[in-house]
User: Which sequence fits this backbone?
């Protein structure tokens, strides 16, 4: 298996797929991400349902690839968001309301430098470094939040901890991430 | 001008993770549409999710998985063309079915109006509120958490001013009476914990008397 996550290659590949619609390129992307999407789905679904949701996610990735903007984040983040939204729909029958940058009501950020694929790769690396600095307890609450569909009150129940403790671990984890990424640096 | 009252970390992380109920998520998405500062924080949280996702131990896919996906590949979907102007941010327009002038207000008591928005979750109650200029919010009383996002006009809660895009995050302990500023009606999105529902008719009948 691939050891170091090849963000740059994957973000470039996804950008290229959006442009050229090359099925062979998409197969490479599929080989990398499908087992991860399936692992994510398996946290809250039976193996059969996880396989089905993974397939739905990957088809959506292909259909929407033209909308991927590497300046906004790594391919892994974009695909995670698609998987997350499909999981919410399948698992809880809820929607995940999202903002839209082309919305005329949108309040844009102050001007910034041009977006590049390199930027996505750098920010992914920065996030990975930041995650490595988290304590075991901090990483645990983040993982439960992202993968087990647990709100912070549900995490408190699962870990048998006061809600305040979970919130403060989350806050510390998040503060570290933010310090590394820098205010406004990710947008 | 960008908002001065921002979304709390716990809501932002739960929203990025996808574990936040739909009603609360709508308030967060509405604020994010109007707040570049919080969008940068959200991007950090979502990027962390992307990295955690990248490092999940891979789960082998079924035989024939790729062939199945390949056979379902469709045409490129691009985003629908947005309208030229809008007051309500996109996440809210999707629930209202249009912009601010499409809201079918229901008059509340002597003043003010509301529109309930339906979501898939059973934990929250989601409403658009119109508070007449200079008036306090009608029928106010909540248990648990309440998120209010200003969409048009402004309100004051005590000394604090909330304007377009600002989010107020209040819990049950806070006694507060948001009051619209005198210049204009204030339209806002209000999300609260759903009222407790008692199964027994008797308890329900006694609810106002017992004050629960």
Assistant:
């Amino acid at each position: 298996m691939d050891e170091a996550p090849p963000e740059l290659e994957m973000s470039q590949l996804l950008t290229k797929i959006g442009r050229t619609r090359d099925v062979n390129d998409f197969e490479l992307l599929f080989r990398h991400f499908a087992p991860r999407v399936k692992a994510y789905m398996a946290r809250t679904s039976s193996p059969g349902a996880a396989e089905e949701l993974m397939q739905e996610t990957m088809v959506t990735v292909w259909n929407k690839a033209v909308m991927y903007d590497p300046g906004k984040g790594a391919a892994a983040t974009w695909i995670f968001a698609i998987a997350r939204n499909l999981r919410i729909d399948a698992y809880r029958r809820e929607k995940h309301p999202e903002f839209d940058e082309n919305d005329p009501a949108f309040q844009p950020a102050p001007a910034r430098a041009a977006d590049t694929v390199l930027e996505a790769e750098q920010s992914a690396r920065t996030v990975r470094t930041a995650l490595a600095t988290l304590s075991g307890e901090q990483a645990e609450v983040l993982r439960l939040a992202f993968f087990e569909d647990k709100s912070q009150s549900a995490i408190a129940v699962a870990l048998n901890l006061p809600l305040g403790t979970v919130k403060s671990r989350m806050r510390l984890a998040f503060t570290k991430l933010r310090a590394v990424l820098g205010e406004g640096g990710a947008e | 001008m960008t908002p001065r009252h921002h979304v709390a970390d716990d809501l932002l992380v739960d929203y990025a993770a996808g574990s936040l109920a739909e009603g609360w998520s709508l308030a967060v998405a509405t604020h994010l549409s109007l707040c570049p500062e919080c969008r940068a924080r959200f991007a950090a949280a979502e990027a962390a999710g992307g990295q955690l996702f990248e490092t999940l131990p891979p789960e082998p896919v079924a035989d024939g998985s790729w062939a199945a996906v390949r056979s379902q590949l469709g045409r490129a979907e691009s985003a629908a063309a947005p309208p030229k102007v809008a007051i309500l941010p996109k996440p809210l327009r999707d629930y209202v079915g249009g912009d601010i002038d499409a809201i079918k207000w229901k008059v509340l008591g002597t003043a003010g109006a509301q529109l309930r928005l339906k979501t898939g979750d059973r934990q929250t109650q989601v409403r658009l509120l119109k508070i007449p200029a200079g008036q306090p919010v009608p029928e106010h009383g909540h248990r648990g958490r309440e998120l209010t996002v200003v969409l048009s006009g402004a309100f004051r809660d005590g000394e604090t001013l909330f304007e377009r895009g600002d989010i107020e995050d209040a819990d049950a302990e806070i006694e507060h009476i948001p009051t619209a500023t005198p210049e204009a009606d204030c339209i806002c999105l209000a999300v609260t914990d759903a009222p407790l529902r008692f199964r027994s008719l008797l308890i329900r009948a006694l609810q106002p008397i017992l004050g629960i």
User: Anything to note?
Assistant: The mean pLDDT of chain A is 88.
